[in-house]
Design goal:
Two copies of one chain form a homodimer. With 579 residues, the first copy, chain A, is α+β, with helices and mostly antiparallel strands. Chain A folds into three domains: 201 residues, Aldehyde Ferredoxin Oxidoreductase,  A, domain 1, CATH 3.60.9; 175 residues, Aldehyde Ferredoxin Oxidoreductase Protein, subunit A, domain 3; 183 residues, Aldehyde Ferredoxin Oxidoreductase Protein, subunit A, domain 2. Helix content of chain A is 39%, strand content 14%. Chain A contains 23 helices and 17 strands. A six-stranded mixed sheet of chain A has the order 2-1-6-3-4-5, with helices on both faces. A six-stranded mixed sheet of chain A has the order 8-7-12-9-10-11, with helices on both faces. In chain A, a hairpin with a 2-residue loop joins strand 16 and strand 17. In chain A, helix 1 packs across helix 18, helix 10 runs parallel beside helix 12 and helix 11 packs parallel to helix 13. The longest helix of chain A has 21 residues. The model of chain A has no long low-confidence stretch (mean pLDDT 97). Chains A and B meet through helix 5, helix 14 and helix 15 of A and helix 5, helix 14 and helix 15 of B.
Chain lengths: 579, 579
């Protein structure tokens, strides 16, 4: 039976409870969305005493199922005003699960400006005053944690942006080498922890009992099928697209499809795309040598290894990692084609503890407002510095793209439910637009990654510019994704399991083996649907209606080059997603 | 038959059309809310090309019915995201109506940073480039208009805050002496005009045909009844409360009731209340002499005369006028008890073209965030200066209280639907809370002024701390008010007509005399209900649900001294307002 840790920041109390019955057999997003729905009043102020942050490793996290080291974090979002689940791949939840913890809930708020650190061991935890970490960037704070608690310590950290309660603040976890670089980035969850005064969590897994599947044979059978599928698919295999070039392999692909949002979503083509592409990152790793490397993993057990470490010209480590979304948001979207500038922008984001997607979309809107010129990397670096310095301008930018646009009366604000749109232009790829628009999370590509069939011909081939059946397509992806986000599996297993039926069987078998359940393939969609519905219901209670399931108005009347489409899936069609 | 002026800012065209049939016999809020509902897509960006600003004099405006010189301005609000009607008393709509114009609609947006002035005469209008007015404060701009178009010119102006598209920007109209001091202040309508590039309107009423009641005798009969009622009621008669002390006579009354929001809604009692009260303003007028005067009127035909002109120590004019809401918001709510500081804050607000209520509530939140000390008048003056200088901090403050609170992670933000609460504490006066919470306008005391029975014993006596029947009370007030806001009558006629039945008869008779209709007393409520429902429906389409009909969360758990009540009308009870 699992355990639940409740950390009350008002009372400075840490209590370990048995996992409630209705939480048994759940994990990841399933569990965070369920608990947030049940325990957080939908109308509460996201930074007030009634919001809660729920951490949950996936169902399989802590096992040796491949790529299963993800943790979900849930709360009411200060960015969207709705429910939020954001997840990251990191050793942290693997330890947490092996220590016997199914979920960790942070409640209450501090009533002063103090900072706290949660030390959690197998037998319970304690809150320790941590004012020495106050306003520390995540790199310095991580170093202090590793010095104090050992190089192998798993940790969670928020940066200064979270402490300043900025809505673009994410939550950082350690990677396999102790970098604070693995982010549950989206939706401002770092700000919620900031309001609670919880700067860090460190895990001491001494004596951890580990995680045991109920049906080991079934588990192993499924595990093998999934490993085989991952290792045989072109996207995920060793030496495949992700392993060789990282996720930024998508830069050139989306650019060629006319779907790479450029200059604050003014065009789908970026002249400088090649210079910030995965190929360019790989080339730099080869040319510069030193710390630079491709094929890096974010947690033990990852066999895709799409992460990277980017080095400066002198070979010293600059940042890990340059993801597609970051290279796009801080690069193409701002017309910045200098990879060293992009790397520096990512490094600053990581240090401040902010979501790189929201940061880049915000910089695009700031450039639109005239606060810097498009393409000016040093000016963009300076703008992020304002966030760190907590100037008034930093307080504007730190609240995200929608907020920045509102501060300056901008009408071209590429957001849904106040969350910045990721790296795929909905006017050029209509299905991903449905996902952005209908997801309870706000604009989020990971909520239903229709890019797979629309751009990559994975799981079939769909015409990106067509509006046909895109609501149905997005719904199928969103349901399956909600399930995958509950397992602890990295979403990238979707590539092989969409194309290789035995891979999908493997996923279901590992879950059944782990839990002793008898879920079928159909149950995957049904469970996903149930999760989505709980999230949607929370949002409805929070006052988020169909009127928020809409693209930004400018996408209805501004045509996007080079295809010159507006977003033309009608409101009525979009409403069918939930009806 | 009335005429409609359509001003298209995209095409720089001015067209006069016959009034559509469904607009005949309507005026003021009835007409603005109807036209906004029909012509503005509820989901549009408030500052984008699809929003429209509708100006409409009241049904009786332009006649010599007493106190009938009000104009309604409607649009989708950039502050609340919902429909907005804001009204002001000024000679402007009296001229507009006499020129034969029932409504004026401003459509489209400019696509550059140009400014325009609309010259409107009896035979039509033209848009004139007005870059010479760009970023000019309203006092200087008004002087330029009067110099160019004559001292008797009626004008509308927006200030620099509107040009900067700030959501606390209002719309200024001239008073009887050409001051730009009469405001349709609430809801950021100045920013909508800013997005349209329309800095000013001037009226040339040469050859105006005037306004003629259909049934002159009935009109006169009603007019006499209403004049008699106004002149015999203690609140509104010559030498009565409003005439002697202005609206700020309420400062001491609300303070004694424990309902004067103080220190960003932390208490209902302000130690320095007396110093910023109507009595103090009247005393200053007596002591200082010079320009200072009480009993000033905002438009010809006003027989209540509650306005004032406040003088500096040397007798020179400082500002007109110090209203209760302004003295409260910029005074008590910020713990500022120096009337000269309050006057200067109001003067700056007028010059910038911002709503004094939103400005004061915003300063209270800014003080909460630590941007200045409560009680520090010079610091508050400096903060307003940031708005004028359009610094990043100015862009935060200029967007209002909710925005400022969000920028700094404040949880004590006294707003409903993002609009700052006015000068009556809902925890101490429960019925006005229902009005704040349920009005389609956001927190607005004028939408249903239950203060009359709850505090002033006008129209019966209701216990302010009681929750009993307050939804019913507020509904009755909101319905009647929506009707009064359509007539052009000043809302202060409500005091006499609540207590004196013949006064109410007079209101109905003047309307019937004007239009040739046969409305009864019951129709008043029915028409008001119809207006409210149209506004509510717009908001629903804009995505504003029952979840937005809620008090700020902190009022649910923080007790307000001295009565130590939370806001305890339940969500279920509040939902009955619309169900």
């Amino acid at each position: 039976m699992g355990k639940l840790v409740r950390v009350n920041m008002s009372e400075k109390k840490v209590v370990v409870e048995p996992l409630p019955d209705q939480c048994e057999g759940k994990g990841g997003r399933w569990l965070t969305s369920l608990m947030v729905s049940e325990e957080v009043p939908a109308g509460c102020h996201p930074l007030g005493p009634n919001n809660k942050v729920v951490f949950a490793p996936g169902i399989l996290t802590g096992t040796n199922a491949p790529n299963s080291g993800r943790i979900s974090v849930g709360a009411k979002s200060p960015l969207t005003g709705g429910i939020k689940e954001s997840n990251a791949g990191t050793p942290f939840p693997q330890k947490l699960a092996r220590m016997g913890y199914t979920a960790l809930v942070v409640e209450g708020i501090v009533d002063d400006d103090s900072r706290w650190l949660l030390k959690l061991g197998v037998d319970g935890g304690e809150l320790v005053p941590a004012d020495e970490l106050k306003w520390k960037g995540t790199y310095e704070a991580a170093r202090m944690l590793l010095d104090n608690y050992g190089e192998k310590t798993a940790f969670m950290l928020i940066g200064p942006a979270g402490e300043a309660k900025m809505a673009m603040a994410g939550i950082a976890f350690n990677d396999t080498e102790g970098r604070p670089s693995r982010y549950a980035g989206r939706g401002g969850l770092g700000a919620v922890l900031g309001s609670k005064g919880l700067k860090a969590i460190v895990l001491d897994d001494t004596g951890a009992p580990g995680v045991d599947p109920v049906d080991k044979d079934l588990f192993k059978e499924g595990q093998k099928k999934l490993v085989d599928a991952i290792q045989s698919h072109d996207v995920t295999k060793k030496g495949g697209a992700l392993n060789s070039f990282g996720t930024a392999v998508l830069i050139n692909i989306l650019n060629e499809a006319g779907g790479l949002p450029t200059k604050n979503f003014r065009s789908g083509v970026f002249e400088g795309a090649q210079k910030i592409s995965g190929e360019a990152i790989a080339e730099a790793a080869k040319q510069r040598g030193g710390a630079g490397t491709m094929g890096h993993s974010c947690h033990p057990g990852c066999i895709i290894r799409c992460s990277n470490v980017y080095a400066r010209e002198d070979g010293s480590e600059h940042v890990s990692c340059i993801e597609y979304e970051s290279s796009w948001s801080l690069g193409a979207n701002c017309c910045i084609d200098n990879l060293d500038h992009v790397a520096e922008l990512i490094r600053i984001c990581n240090d401040l503890g902010v979501d790189t997607i929201e940061a880049g979309v915000t910089l695009g809107v700031a450039m639109e407002a005239g606060l810097a010129e498009f393409g000016d990397g040093p000016a963009a670096i300076k703008l992020l510095g304002e966030i760190g310095a907590r100037t008034p301008l930093g307080h504007i930018l730190g609240q995200g793209a929608q907020f920045t646009g509102e501060a300056y009366g901008v009408t071209r604000i590429p957001t849904v439910k106040h969350q910045g749109m990721p790296a795929y232009e909905p006017r050029a790829v209509k299905g991903i637009g449905v996902t952005y628009i209908t997801s309870p999370m706000g604009a989020d590509h990971t909520a239903g990654y229709t890019i797979a069939p629309e751009i990559l011909a994975v799981g079939g081939k769909q015409e990106p510019l067509s509006t046909m059946d895109k609501v149905t397509l997005s719904r199928a992806f969103q349901e399956t994704t909600a399930f995958i986000d509950s397992t602890g599996y990295c979403l990238f297993i979707a590539f092989p399991i969409l194309d290789i039926p035995s891979g999908f069987e493997g996923v279901v078998q590992t879950v059944n083996g782990m839990l002793g359940t008898g879920y079928t393939g159909e149950d995957v969609g049904a469970i996903g649907k149930e999760i989505l519905q709980a999230e949607k219901d929370f949002n409805t209670r929070a006052g988020i209606t169909a009127a928020a399931d809409r693209p930004p108005e400018f996408m209805r009347y501004e045509k996007l080059p080079p295809h010159n489409h507006v977003y033309d899936i009608s409101d009525e069609e979009l409403d069918k997603f939930w009806n």
